[in-house]
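> call design_seq(struct)
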């Protein structure tokens, strides 16, 4: 972000210094508006998860759902294994 000049900074010798409000400013500039999907929409099979809505064919939507569910399963497995170690 610094090389791309997306984050305000000052170079002092070998140091890169950030103004105290640089992170907040960056977050405001690149904030993504929240999703307005209906969380109780049909097709959401994961508890507490918002439904996936995409434009495209139903095959693309099904593939997206499978990928999302696989990601959630992987995260749950990692969380469970980290508690056990």
């Amino acid at each position: 972000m610094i090389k791309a000049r997306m984050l305000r900074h000052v170079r002092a010798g070998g140091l890169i210094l950030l103004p105290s409000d640089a992170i907040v400013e960056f977050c405001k500039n690149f904030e993504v508006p929240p999703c307005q999907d209906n969380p109780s929409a049909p097709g959401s099979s994961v508890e507490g998860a918002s439904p996936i809505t995409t434009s495209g064919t139903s095959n693309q939507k099904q593939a997206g759902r499978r990928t999302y569910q696989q990601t959630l399963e992987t995260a749950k497995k990692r969380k469970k294994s980290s508690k056990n170690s």
